[in-house]
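A common beginner's mistake is to predict each chain separately and then try to dock the pieces by hand. The better habit, illustrated here, is to supply every component at once so that their relative placement is modeled jointly.
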Amino acid sequence: MNDAPAEARQSREMAAALLSWYDRHRRALPWRAAAGHRADPYHVWLSEIMLQQTTVVTVGPYFQKFLAAWPTVATLAGAPLDDILKAWAGLGYYARARNLHKCAKAVVTDHHGVFPDTEEALLKLPGIGPYTAAAIAAIAFDRPAAAIDGNVERVVSRAFALREPLPETKPQIRDLTRAMVPETRAGDFAQALMDLGATVCTPRRANCLICPWSGSCLGQAQGIAEDLPRKRPKAPKPTRHGTVFWIARSDGAVLVRARPEKGLLGGMTEFPSTQWTEGAEPANPLSQAPLGTGWRKLAGAVRHTFTHFHLELDVWASEPVPRDGCDLPGCRWVDPVDLPAEALPTLMRKVSAHAQAAGDD
DNA sequence: AACTCGTGGAG
DNA sequence: TCTCCAAGAGT
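With all components supplied together, the output reads:
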């Protein structure tokens, strides 16, 4: 089991088979260059940040919108952060948007507006971790870097029948992947491996009959491909409760404020609410409303699920507040027709829809 | 080294 | 309905 030359030959053969498959099944994606051409580093970076824990289908329209608004890294660096948050609204993981802006500014000020072309230098930039650094180095600069995402973890776990659970097998996966990265066409290899995981060797179905690695895959040979990779069980999600306040002025404008920079939905716009607490709700939530009288609780509740908890929000609406003399520090009034353009996360869009539907009765 | 951080689609 | 999970990073 320690035949190094045989293992090296096996790695080269697997890489060659994968690249051959990629040449026949290459997908056209908005950020992907034409076959044989090198992609724009700005496009690669922007797409890779958006694709972190996010599907290709979801990212597509956001990528096009960002590219139209900010065609270069310099224009993105020069944009107000709030404009970027507004454009990012709905995509989730909002720290990515703030780091996107930080990274663009760092590229302009520290790298003369040109993305660095090594894994090591890329890794130092905000929002670029081990996966993204390797992906940009390989895809944009054709450097032999091993970009290991969830697809690669799954495909490699199956190809080598790694029976131990993640994350313990990550070092093995890294070594096995690195051994396969070819000296040339490293970018194509990275994209091919991810495409294989996305379209053939999928989480529930291994589809071994159409897989370019079916001849060598140990997971298939042992009949356990679809059971891999094994993972540790996840903790159940608790439910948090809260009350959100829909406060309209006599001219129809609604009260909003910005959330704190750090933490959940950091920097995004919200309607004022109580804290979201696990267990029973506060006895008198209205005492936490910034202003308003004549409260009525709207029928139903807004439900939303985050990565690690469920949320149930009651919505209370007040009587219209006078047009003048009701300004509050940190708060703004927004005409409801302008809400779609605000940096409202999906949760708050649900609140808005819920409150405005109740007002239509 | 766990934990935090969104959202929407598939099954 | 409910779980899983998708081109992960920051702390």
